[in-house]
Amino acid sequence: MVSILILVYSSNTTRKTSPVYSTKSTPDVNFDYPVQDWNSNLTHSLNISKDNLNITDLVSNTTVQVKTDKKQTNLISIHMTDFQIYVKDSKGHCYEIINVLENNPEICQLNISSIKSVSCGAAHTLLLDEDGVVYSFGDGSRGQLGNGTTETSTNPDKIPALMGIDIKAISAGSWHSAVITSTDDLYTWGWNDKGQLGFPSKKNKHNHKEEEVVNILCTPHWLDIPEEEYINNICCGSQHTIALTGSGRIYGWGLNKYGQLGFNAESDFVDKPTELIFFREEELKIINIFARHWTTIILTE
Description:
- By secondary structure, this protein is mainly beta.
- Helix content is 1%, strand content 46%.
- The protein is globular, with a radius of gyration of 19 Å.
- Keywords: Repeat.
């Protein structure tokens, strides 16, 4: 049996400090056609039906179909920032959907091939190719592109500090980024306002020396997880980060205002990797982890 445990966002003042249990069964979302993938941002939702892209304006509730040609087939996944839309096909090509706000969407291929995975933050995007090379582009105002600057980049560029390092997984939060190397090391960079990078935050300055405090990291920095040999998976929410280790333990850090880290804390955030011991105490085997915005989802066996 597969179970889902959700660390939920609550709109009231009561913070959820332990996972909420749910079974695999969830309400159906009905479409009039088979859907391969679905996603949404602030203004639009998008789904793939066979080789067609269907975009729905969430304000007017109208749907248009993106015209594709024979080269833009086998589309398999959708990735969205707050403002941009990207799709990936089975051959590793990545496309941007443009002119959406003008209600005249077009599909344009990015000049990178063999894309293995895509991860989108609020306004920046990470790409990982089959050779383990990471590209970043979009808003860089909080160092989330990892290129040593806080400038915006409209074209995907390799991250210099990661050149020569084989990367196997990427994840983009709203304004921070994280990757796992093939040797199971974890690197983070970007905004550390709530400790989402796992380094001392200025908001917690009373517990740290001033010289230790990190506000923004514009290049990837190695992050050590206490007493753990390696990181198996990483997921970034808006301002929090969740990691799954090789021994099956869950660690979290960053914003915990809405209970998204799943444990009690003295403040609304935690700026160092901290184990969520609930799963170890309950002897639950973790299958996968997911984090987005203010929510964390843990899939157990």
